[in-house]
Amino acid sequence: MSCCPDTSDELAWANLSRRRFLTGLAAASASLLVPGVWNGLAHASTPTQPAIDLPGGDLPRELTFHHTHTEEELHIVYWRTGSYVPEALDAVNRFLRDFRTGDQVSIDPHLLDVLHTLALATGTQSPFHVISGYRSPQTNASLRKRRRGVARNSQHLRGRAIDVRLEDVDTTTLRDTAIALGRGGVGYYKKSRFVHVDTGPVRTW
């Protein structure tokens, strides 16, 4: 009799569990695309809006961030006992401000739900490394002059987008997991090694 578990069996079980998890996420996400439901969720941006149902039931939802430009870090429990935590959302608004101008807006709480779900699905132990959060109109216009691929009406302008990477998850895996959720836009930037996610219309690039 072997003294150790069969590694191949453990791997197969882990892969099965992950497939089941992603299947459940896809089903939950599909329900958000019902006309009249998705639009209401996507445009809401205050802590009084209803939270999206996520795996984990009533367990608190938390996130950890590291900002690649300011070197700031943030760990928050942004949702507990069935509602968003206003103080945590305020902290997110400050953290994801336009670091070039200092301007800030209310970040869509459902963007946090997308990140939280990505963390669960990938099993990451890394903070989300933030490349870009909110962008002021001035910053967006400046970036459009210097870089290709910066949208005139970017979701970053509305506090509904974030560019991130995870140090312990391959960027293609992060992209594919985000696409599987079907909760908004997903952009893949291979050379810069980050993924854009937003709560706007479902699309990829």
Report on the architecture of this protein.
The structure is a single chain. By secondary structure, the protein is α+β, with helices and mostly antiparallel strands. The chain has one domain (7-204): Muramoyl-pentapeptide Carboxypeptidase, domain 2 (2-Layer Sandwich), CATH 3.30.1380.10. The protein has helices at 7-31, 38-43, 86-95, 109-122, 137-146, 171-181; strands spanning 61-67, 73-80, 83-84, 128-132, 161-165, 185-189, 194-198, 203-204. It starts with 6 loop residues before the first helix and ends with a strand. Residues 1-23 and 26-49 have low confidence and may be disordered.
Name the structural class: alpha+beta
Contiguous runs where pLDDT drops below 50 for at least 5 residues: 1-23, 26-49
Give the overall shape.
globular
The arrangement of helices and strands along the chain is: HHEEEHHEHEHEEE
Count of distinct strands: 8
Please report the number of helical segments.
6
Share of residues in helices: 25-40%
